[in-house]
């Protein structure tokens, strides 16, 4: 695939060197390569996707996380505001 889209050896090496989120300390991120093949202005670079506290709260999938989230959000009229409040308190 790298050959088909024209990735350089340097870009392939960078992709293979991206750290996995579970190998990081501090604020975790997922690295990805942004590639825009344009004849006059090609762009290729690394970007970091950092999940917000709200996204992490909503995506937790253990049984305990599901139960806690259901309890915290049960019966609220404005779910978005409730999520913001809960994550600000944690």
Description:
By secondary structure, the chain is α+β, with helices and mostly antiparallel strands. The chain folds into two domains: 2-49, no CATH class; 53-89, no CATH class. The protein is 46% helix and 16% strand. The chain has helices at residues 2-5, 9-16, 53-59, 63-73, 79-89, and strands spanning 30-36, 43-49. It has a two-stranded antiparallel ribbon. Helix 3 (53-59) packs across helix 5.
Helix fraction, binned, reads 40-55%
Rg, Cα atoms, Å: 19 Å
Largest beta-sheet characterization: 2 strands, antiparallel
Placed side by side, the strands forming the largest sheet appear as 1-2
Residue-averaged pLDDT, rounded? 93
Taken from the alpha-carbon principal axes, the silhouette is: elongated
Instruction: Work out the count of structural domains.
Output: 2
pLDDT < 50 runs, ≥5 residues:
none
Separate helix tally: 5
Distance between the termini: 42 Å
Count of beta strands: 2
Estimated structural class: alpha+beta
- Topology order in helix (H) and strand (E) letters: HHEEHHH
Instruction: State which percent range the strand residues make up.
Output: 15-25%
């Amino acid at each position: 695939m790298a050959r088909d889209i024209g990735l350089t050896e340097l870009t392939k090496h960078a992709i293979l060197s991206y750290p996995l989120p579970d190998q990081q300390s501090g604020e975790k991120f997922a690295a990805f390569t942004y590639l825009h093949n344009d004849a006059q202005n090609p762009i290729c670079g690394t970007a970091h996707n950092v999940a917000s506290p709200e996204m992490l709260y909503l995506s937790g999938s253990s049984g305990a996380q599901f139960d806690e989230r259901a309890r915290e959000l049960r019966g609220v009229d404005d779910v978005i505001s409730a999520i913001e409040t809960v994550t600000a308190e944690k």
